[in-house]
Amino acid sequence: MKIVDVKVVVTSPGRNFVTLKLTTDDGLTGLGDATLNGRELAVVSYLTDHVAPLLTGRDPHRIEDTWQYLYRGAYWRRGPVTMAAIAAVDVALWDIKAKAAGLPLYQLLGGASRERVRTYGHANGRDIPELLDSVRARLAEGYQAVRIQSGIPGLKAVYGVHSTDESGAAVLHQQARPLVEDWDTDAYLRHTPTVFEAVRAEFGAELPLLHDAHHRLSPIQAARLGKDLEPYRPFWLEDCTPAENQEALRLVRRNTTTPLAIGEVFNTVHDYQALITEQLIDYVRSAVTHFGGVTPLRKLFDFAAQYQIKSAVHGPEDISPIGMAAALHLDLAVHNFGIQEYSGHTPLTDEVFRHAYTFTDGHLHPGEAPGIGVELDEDLAAAHPYEAAYLPVNRLQDGTVHDW
Ligand SMILES: O=NC(=O)[C@@H](O)[C@H](O)[C@H](O)CO
Ligand SMILES: [Co+2]
């Protein structure tokens, strides 16, 4: 079997997605997600100008060899653009291999280790009453775990809290120019324990509550927050501090038993080395799309399993249904599965990317369709062209740029 066509499809059914479509001489097709929020066109060029010419004529069954060829053969290693491009190729090849075998991908990854995939949803509010309503809405949708994000008194916009414009319409955090958001860590550290207090008082002690500090704290501030949240027993505190400096987590780990989740911005195992071997975290967060594909993410989960660390694949709306589907096949198969983030997509996105996966009672299942179980409606995709979009930039009260 040979790859005879390589196509990159950019579409924006409410937000930008980049999709790679490979076609073989047998007429089989494979899809891969290459979406890098805010820097999408860099990956389009990496795939179109540098990778596509190398794929034509290759045997699609040689997944490991193709991955090594693209990773080592580029000379310049790692990084979000490179690894998103390689991920798209990897997932498309697994899609083809599974279709050729007539099996859903999870059957090629060792088969099901569980009946279904536990998820968590996003609850948010500009203030605590609005957050409580949002938790209620997620529970009504069937979620059995929620990430809670709240506005902070005195701050205009906060990560994870959908702000609305004068008309009340939600303001997406992708904008044609970066939105500038304001930040005050002390206000956040004072306010967040009161948020957990209110949610626990309203929903009880059992509901798994997750929270994302989104890279904004110093190690000692992260230790303080982890400690202050212990009475509320969070399921996890996510991205508590920028973790390029992995050793920084030693100070946090020494000071709190609050479980820690890190890694949605990591793209190779080297970003995690000390975090895993020193058991500084409890969950690894990378998504298939940003970590180079199914092939390396499976290796990461197996490495993490040796240190009692579980998977928790990143699943926001800017991971396309293709990336979500690929994650679910891994989630179903690996032994050390933890939880899957699932924000869902717009109805239009679900029409562009028709998928076999289903959401029921707060759990997902990848479905039994051969391959990863996603089909791309190219005509509908073409009707929604790319729109330049940036993630926000965060600034402290004195104007200093901070982590968003
Ligand atoms: O845990 N989820 C997150 O932190 C996400 O909402 C990220 O901010 C976006 O996916 C960045 O594109
Ligand atoms: Co996050």
Fold and architecture overview:
With 404 residues, the chain is of the alpha/beta class. The chain is 35% helix and 19% strand. The chain is built from 12 helices and 20 strands. It has helices spanning 40-55, 63-73, 80-101, 128-140, 185-203, 219-229, 248-255, 273-277, 294-305, 321-333, 347-352, 378-382, and strands at residues 3-11, 17-24, 29-33, 117-125, 146-150, 163-164, 170-171, 180-183, 209-212, 236-238, 260-262, 283-284, 310-311, 340-341, 353-355, 358-360, 363-365, 374-376, 393-396, 401-402. Strands 4, 5, 9, 10, 11, 12, 13, 14, 16 and 17 form a 10-stranded mixed beta sheet that branches. The longest helix is centred in the first third of the chain and has 22 residues, at 80-101. It is globular. The model has no long low-confidence stretch (mean pLDDT 96). Bound molecules: (2S,3R,4R)-2,3,4,5-tetrahydroxy-N-oxo-pentanamide (EZ4) and cobalt (II) ion. The site of (2S,3R,4R)-2,3,4,5-tetrahydroxy-N-oxo-pentanamide has 9 residues, from loops. It is an enzyme of class 4 (lyase). It comes from Streptomyces longisporoflavus. InterPro entries: D-mannonate_dehydratase-like, DgoD-like, Enolase-like_C_sf, Enolase-like_N, Enolase_C-like, Mandel_Rmase/mucon_lact_enz_CS, Mandelate_racemase_C, Mandelate_racemase_N_dom. Its EC number is 4.2.1.8. Keywords: Lyase.
